[in-house]
Amino acid sequence: MTVHEMKHAASDSARLEAVGGRLSRVDGPAKITGAAHYAFEQRLEGLTHAVLVGATIAAGKVTAIDTRAAETAPGVLAVLTPDTIMALKTASDWFGTPPPDRPYCPLAREVTFSGQHVAAVVAETFEQAVAAAALVKVWYDETPAIVDLSDGNAGDGIAIDAMTKEWGDAEAAFAEAPVRVCAAYNTPREFQVAMEPHGLIARWQGDQLTIWEPSQWLDGMARTYAEWFGIPFENVRLVSPYIGGGFGSKALALAHSAVAAAAARMLGRPVKLVLTRPQNFTSYGGRAATRQTVAIGADRQGKIQSIVHRGVNETAVDGMWVEPLGSVTSIMYATPNFSSKQNVVRVNTVVPGAKRAPGENPSAFGIECAIDELAYELGLDPLEIRLINYAERDPHAKKAWSTRQLREAFATGAEAFGWAKRSREPRSMRDGHQLVGWGVAAGTYPVRRAYGEAMVKLLSDGSAEVESSSIDMGQGTYTILAQTAAETLGVPVEKVSVKLGDSRLARAGVTGGSRLAGVMTGAVYKAAGQALDELIGLALSDPRSPFHGLQANTLVVKDGRIASPRGDGPELSVAELMGMLGCEKIEAKGDTVPASFTREQRYNNYTTIAMALPHTEGDYSRHSWCAHFVEVRVDEDFGTVRVSRVVSALDSGRLYNPKLAESQWKGGIIMGIGQALLEEGIVDRRHGRIVNGNLADYMLPTNADIPDIQTISVGIPDPHSSALGGKGVGELGIVGVAPAIANAVFHATGKRVRDLPITLEKLI
Amino acid sequence: MRDFAYLRADSVEAARNAAALPGAMLLAGGTTLVDLAKCGVAEPATVVDISHIEGLDAIDVSAERAVIGALARMSHVADHPQVKSHFPAVSEALWQAASAQLRNMATIGGNLMQRTRCPYFRDPQNFPACNKRAPGSGCSAIGGVTRGHAVLGVSEACIATYPGDLAIALVAFDAEADLGDRKLKVEDFFLAPGATAEREHDIRPGEVITAIEIPGSAAARRSTYLKVRDRQSYEFAAASAAVGLELEGDGRTIRDIRVALGGVATKPWRARAVEEALKGKPLDEEIVRKASELAMEGAVDHGANHYKIALAPRVIARAILKLGETA
Known about the structure:
A: alpha+beta, Aldehyde Oxidoreductase, domain 3, Aldehyde Oxidoreductase, domain 4, globular, B: alpha+beta, 13 helices, 12 strands
């Protein structure tokens, strides 16, 4: 697409249905009326129910399991233990690394975290399975656990050399800098807490496996199931029509998924397994707890001379998770000297996973608090110091930014917020008993790109269908793909139906890293263009067409009607034309995959993350950017913090649907408010167990905690980031919120809280 | 399956008879019982559904007294105009409790029977030791995660916090629970754990709460409930105070004052030392703050809940001073 064409499309955005229009979510009515059936709401004949038994120790061996009472309980069909569950094969990881040739058992003999699945009961009804699961007796040989990063036995961990980023001589430059700040910033274990729990229904028909499961990645999960059971990839069908929130947690087939699928195979009946809310805190990982030290050396004018950054994140005893803590640190500010290194420390937890902006989120908490501390050290305005050190190009990759509207975000956000009226000194603004503080922080997220495909069908009634095995977890895929197809085909958006969430449809890679919109609008744009070309080709060449013989190279379609560009020929509806042509439908499967790709490369493109394009590929470094301005009110007696105002200016490039993008940004900002003030998985150190694994005790913000949030788009189309000019949306919003709040709390109180969440006892 | 018998009581008498059965538990709004059954704490042999008994949801309020039927919904009582005018602390306590959905279901009688939110109490599978559930088994909370636990009225057997809001206001204003053959002060209805943590309420087999009576007073009319918590809604108190105030004709000297605390004690906690220290004293910020400290006499913390000892007196003082600002 040329830049000219893109501008043309953008100018069309006044039309609701066009790309860039504020069309409401097309799946909204089905969701709010209950007509939308989520994955494990399917009703199947002969459905059985599985309930898991979790380890009550954090480390040790299962020495015996007594299943007799459970086996004879009413309705029980099977009690599965490590000894009785069928053997599975180990599956490859999400990079597609060939797995070791050894069996995989999703029920643990060696317990490495509290809550790990050790047995499962399958019964005719859910209630029977629950009751019988309580009868399973497990004996353990318990060994000491390392409960978290602060455990005396945790050690320094493993150095992850691939995370090291260095240029210049950072340590020496820091030591020589006339102005220095150095502090440690900690984030706790946090959880995704999607409203819809994890779970699935598994059904076997011969060697064909159908899985109904909320999924951010149908093809990736289908690959895992296929490898576990040693069946062809094509034999696995995943169905995931709607997803009640994922936030990174629903991209992988997990141990409980394997248990349900194995149980279904063993019993020859479909099995439903849904995790309880507490199990959703122990069956898959949330965001790893992190520790960072950020040291910044600057000259007296505030120009940064050096940044020295050291990070640690927790991982599991039997699994690796690296939360890239230097990702924002290394690109946000210009510095001649830089050093970032990272270790991971094994503790007795389920392996941590992706939660909205993994890496960038905690990374921004460190650097964006540290730069604030430097501003106060120098007596500079926190906004000013960010502009003094503005990175005109990627300081790490040493490449030009594709687009970086961060200066515009600072200016626009500051103006809308009224930042200029800020009083300089901490603890200098007050409203009755409330200490008022203002804070700012920036955020960023890389543009993750990948290749995609889509099927677009033009039907004889003039309607169109879009098909893809990609998914909509609330971010708006159904809607923006309808808009893309409608605009490209020239048909009204209400005539476009979008089918997603079935692995039988055109293939798609992972929905994660804020990449799906860019990948899929590009694929639909291409497929729809092919379908349109085919229609126009037929219209010009087929003797039955009224355009046959017209002296025209092409035709135009608008509002479902087709005509010559000069308007000198006939004009008729697409349906009428297809009727004349005797054409039932036109199908076009379009993809953006390089023609040179082999069959295996195509397979890996959809079932692994190994084929994604680096965001610094070629001449540019591609990122979304944002600046958050927040006002907090801290009760001087109680230490309670409430966010009273948020203004965020964000650069996600061109927005395919501003209404949905704003919702996503706001969702991220709300999640950031929770992270800053409330969220923390609290571990009982004696048992290595999360004790607040439920929605009453794991604190998330309520509506009453959320003020009006103003989001302002400052993006411009970025032709280097995606076919239609958009950059990532979904993860950007959360990045920088927590440091903005922490900085505002400092401004309000004069107290620097560097450990999240900022709860009242830290300020009282 | 954990089977249980389900009985529907159509009269208070029938309810009393059924409640006397071994292992019987009453069901009204169900917001506590169903929740505790789900987490494996409540395992009733018989569920006695009293929600269909007629006439038990009446709310009768005058300046002299409020009589609130046991089946009155929290949301109805909170929104009752006379409750708001004669007993504002009661209405405010209810509005700040739970969520709108729970307040629409939960009843006043059931609210008094609400159990602690101690995470160890609520997780029998992972924490078998709990003196409330299994007398003599020990306390899993002591030495564990104690941020929400009590600092007042604790014992070596139990440090679980009484979680409710309404009862704090009831205790402040000398409300009584009507149990049929006897009435007793709500303050005495709740029992501190001592060595018998399993006994939380002075209620005997076969007794049914039919109503709550709150005597009217000038202090009740000038009252408020202040609740401090991590988030703005749908959370139990880190510390709360129900406070009522009556001033002498000079508009400055304290004639009567009521103070009760929530979120910091094993039962709804009347702070009489604060009341006594302030009666006859001028309503002065320094005096009020100093007197409020007396509420924490005998407080014992377990580390993570230490902040409550500093927080609770500030909540009391703020509530009193706020009332002083109102005419």
